[in-house]
Amino acid sequence: MPILDCIVIGDRINPGFKSTRALIDSENLDGLRALALRQVASGADYLDVTIGPRGHEDPAFLTEIIRAVQGAVDVPLCFDYPDAAVQEVCLRAYDPARARGRNPLVNSLAETRLEMLGLRRICPFDVVLMTSEFLDGGAARPVHGSDDVVAVAARLCKRLVRDLDFSMQQIFIDVTVNSMVADTRGMTAMALDAIGRIRRHEGMRGVHIMGGLTNIGNMLPPIDVGGMQLSHAMESAFLTVAIPLGLDTIMGTPWNPFRLLPHDHPVLQTFQEVSALQGLDAVRRLRRLWAK
């Protein structure tokens, strides 16, 4: 069942989760298959697959995992490596027939690593565009505001469509979602502003706009607010604001209780207030939520 009418990329096959790291470290393919099945049963449209540094060190094991996951589910996979050599391993292992003919997602392309586009000779793919950095005089520079994010996204989309025959529907723009606890520079507000501006941009009509939803609740204390774990409520607060602006794709845990929050929900109110603040003022306002 669709989650809030969004495309969902299940993010659990990732050693950043302790339980998944244990499966990878023990080479428990049955456990990884079960994890893939649970995500799809919970609403995932794609499955993100990364095994961390081991993907660089052990391409044979990475291949084995991709084939094991594809033996269990028929959704397309998203390969989360910023390295062309590892992406090549993933694309050679991927079997479109096991995903009902659908392309994998390469996550993520940036202006600083356009060489990954040459991998289309191996396997057609759709692409996630990273907008957190841009190329300046041959060097990577971090973006400093939504103007930069929109400009980077527009340049990359124009190049992919004009020169490389991508359709807009094959492009997913990642606006970079950060932890609320660590957001002292207004990064959440920047992401939200970029979502609305990209959705309204004539040159990017039809693209998908996505964010890594699990990031927003990282490092929040494990407390209950109104019947929801605080991190899950914060994810829902982000979605409540971002979906009307144009977000249509979630990278997150499919079984988390995503929902749109009422305007008077304390976590939504806190989210909106913190998003408008920077520095220690943002941190102090967030802490007031769990101090209650």
3D structure, described in words:
- With 292 residues, the chain is α/β, with parallel strands linked by helices.
- The chain folds into two domains: 1-87 and 95-119, Dihydropteroate synthase-like (TIM Barrel), CATH 3.20.20; 131-292, TIM Barrel, CATH 3.20.20.20.
- The chain contains ten helices and twelve strands.
- Strand 3 (77-80), helix 5 (84-93) and strand 4 (105-109) form a beta-alpha-beta unit.
- The protein is globular and about 50 Å long.
- The protein starts with 6 loop residues before the first strand and ends with a helix.
Helix proportion range: 40-55%
- CATH names the topology of the largest domain as TIM Barrel
Element pattern in H and E: EHHEHHEHEEEEHEHEEEHEHH
The CATH superfamily of the largest domain is Dihydropteroate synthase-like
The number of helical segments is 10
Can you name the CATH architecture of the largest domain? Answer: Alpha-Beta Barrel
The percent range for strand residues is 15-25%
Mean pLDDT: 94
Distance between the termini: 35 Å
Annotate the secondary structure layout.
Layout: E1 7-13, H1 18-25, H2 29-41, E2 46-49, H3 54-57, H4 59-72, E3 77-80, H5 84-93, E4 105-109, E5 126-130, E6 133-136, E7 139-142, H6 146-164, E8 171-174, H7 187-200, E9 208-212, E10 224-225, E11 228-229, H8 230-245, E12 249-252, H9 266-275, H10 279-291
Parallel strand pairs: 1-2, 1-12, 2-3, 3-4, 4-5, 5-8, 8-9, 9-12
Antiparallel strand pairs: 6-7, 10-11
Helix pairs in contact: 2-4, 4-5, 6-7, 8-9, 9-10
